Amino acid sequence: LGQPLLGVLEGPRVSRGVLLHLQRARRDSAGVGCLARGVGDACVTEDADGRGGAGHVRALGDELDAVLRERRRVGLEELVLRRNQLMALPAELGNLQNLRVLSLNGNRLAALSGIDGLKSLEELNVGNNPLTSLPAEIGQLENLKILAVGTSGLASLPPEIGNLKALTRLSLDNGQLTSLPAELGRLQNLQFLTLN
Question: Rounded to 5 degrees, what are φ and ψ at 91?
């Protein structure tokens, strides 16, 4: 029985420790041995899951830069940065080549930049942000299967959205869209389109 992966990196008010991409291991409640108190306490699970620890960060300090620097040691696959009051994406984010899931919902992002380097990205959640548009480079995310942009100020979609050949789910709930680009018709794998 496979256990679901959990990705948590909540706001700075959540104790001093930050948990990121945790997976159940060895039958304990979350596979976590300790919580980091600061950046210097960051540690990587070396072999808790029998896969050499690849992609699994056990506990990190409070600073986002420290999380992104850890990517040099770990092929980070899932990053959840919900409700962190982020106003911009760090430049390091585009270097996470193994990243498959990126959740940025509930921040203060007015624009997305530097995402074109996320070639392995399969799921992007940017809902509940004051986005008014998506960048043209969104079309370079050729492995993207799920795009959630609900509850935003999104007024239009770039025509490059038609390049997302792998896209199966597009959620545009509670936005400001008045029309959809004709290029959506090129999304042959699209199964779910939500426009509430």
Answer: -60, -35
Mean pLDDT calculated for residue range 100-124: 94
Quickly tell me which residue has 């959540």 as its tokens. 14
Indicate if the pLDDT at residue 164 is higher than 50.
yes
List of residues 6+ apart from 72 with CB closer than 8 A: none
Residue 68 DSSP one-character state: H
pTM (predicted TM-score)? 0.68
> How far is Cα 168 from Cα 45, in angstroms, rounded to an integer?
33
Half-sphere exposure of 113 (CA within 13 A, CB side): 8
Burial state string for 15-32 with b = 16 or more CB within 10 A and e = fewer than 16: eebbbbbbbbbeeeeebb
Handedness of CA 44, 96, 20, 52 (dihedral sign): negative
Label residue 118 exposed, middle or buried (CB < 10 Å: 0-12, 13-18, 19+): buried
Taking residue 94's Cβ as centre, other Cβ atoms within 10 Å add up to: 18
Whole-Å CA distances, 35 to 19, 38, 60, 61, 176: 8, 9, 7, 8, 41
CA separation for the pair 16, 5 (Å, rounded): 22
- How many separate helices (H) and strands (E) can be counted in the chain? 1, 8
